Request: fold
Amino acid sequence: MKKIFGFIIATTLVASCTPPEVGYISDNIHAQASTMVVPRGVYTLGALPIVDGSTYPLKWEITSITDKDGNVTNELQEKRDMLIWKKTFDPRTDTTWELAMQKVTLSQQPAILIDENSGQFSFTQNTVKVSGDDFDVSLSAKNVKGERLLKNFMHIKLSAFKPVEFPVASRVDIQFGKANNVWEFDTSTVPATTMTHPADYFLLANAYDDQKTILDGTNNRMTILKKDVEPKLSIKVKMIILDGDGTPIDPSKLVFFPNSGYPGSPGVNLPNFHDNTIGVVVEPDGTTFGLPAPPFPQYSVRYTNPTDPNRFLMYYLSANDAVTFDKAAYEAANPVPAGGWEAFWTPYTDPATNVIRTRLYIRWGIVINDTGTWELKMKIPYCKVK
Reply:
């Protein structure tokens, strides 16, 4: 009996010293979406895969990529030259081209990358150099419990390269001034009660047709044109603001929009190209801004949150003496307001000079993803350079 009891105890001790089986790897590891549309030429981050309770850490690896015909291809993984940032660009400290260029380097990079720890895809600007459009990516996922081969884990579709994007509409408007430096947007042609912002009357790039004419140079209000392929790696952008006759407004008469009512930073100017680029060159007809690499703009001094979608917004006003107002042209083009024109103009007329107080409001809402030299033009109606 004692021998049997001792055997039971020994067996129990041996069993208790054997480590329990650990780890789990699911048969249902999958992508959050079966297809990912990737814009060419723009850094894009994919979603995390669904691991279905699999034990971490997991190690991820691309096992193969096939084209639309099912043939294995290395087009996405082929390494090509690309200018990359070694450190974050900050125009407050990177005030010269020499300082900024110390933060970039020419590197051999593929169009697709995978984080071996998270399984998250990222796509580099080198997607613009890939000729194919459709790819299926297969992966392996490994952990302490084993390995899963994930054939055709995700379908990648490369969309067309957009040299210029319009995340939101750009705006331009005339502001009318009352006494004591109170300025109001033009609300005569569209009732302010029907819109969130009266400046919507001069909304630009708010529809596909607008964007098309802006990029082909036929829009009579705003154009964005690539003037030169040089510089091939960096970007230069010239901003030209025109009066109603097409005469350039003196760049010294374009001032920063005061941010006096902006939450958290009263008295600070809103974002502008001057603050967010380097190598600023002022010429009689406009101002040229520069960056060592696109996109432009890629940083905002005022919008410091890297996830803030408004970092591309840039604001300007004209000085109060930059232009004169073309009242006759304005009245001819717009319906008579309630109470008539004389009553409408009275609050905005300087009694000492009998001149309508006028200044210009400008907001750019664009991103340029391409290199080279670009020209931004904005033409503002009903005003003339003094």
User: Anything to note?
Assistant: The mean pLDDT is 86. The two ends are 115 Å apart (CA to CA).
